[in-house]
Fold this sequence. Notes:
It contains seven helices and four strands; from the N terminus they run ααααβαββαβα. By secondary structure, it is of the alpha+beta class. It has two domains: 6-55, Arc Repressor Mutant, subunit A (Orthogonal Bundle); 59-140, Alpha-Beta Plaits (2-Layer Sandwich). The chain has a four-stranded antiparallel beta sheet. Strand 2 and strand 3 form a beta hairpin. The radius of gyration is 20 Å and the shape is elongated.
Amino acid sequence: MTRLDARDLQILKVLATDGRITKAALAEKVGLSATPCWERLKRLEQAGLIAGYRAEIALKKIGPHVTVFVAAELADHTAASMQGFERAVQGYDEVVACWALGGGFDYLMQIVTRDIDAYQRLIDAMLEARIGLARYFTYIVTKPVKSSGVPPLDLLASR
Length: 159
């Protein structure tokens, strides 16, 4: 693990909320001059702490859509079956996130489609493709409540 000080955490927090900030503005926000801030930023990137820079898309402005969370249970719990499922999920663009779980369900998928019909066609295609899906439970998002995407860095960093 990379040792992080308070400045590193500040840099990560600022970037988590504004990935397009200029290097000069970032340096000003964290109280550093440009060169030391840039060096820290490069070090954080090289250490793999910054996985990428992305835009948060306002899907409502693009068109109608539905977000669905799917708790999935596989028919078989061998390593090969789980790896096969994980590879297969990579091929579905509608699956925007997928997490392996410990506990009752095997996976939690976040799926975005145009409507419920499109979602059902996707699930039918997954079942027909025999990717190992035995049972699934659908949870339709009715409204977003919180989605900052910014983890509590201060709480997670080891000191």
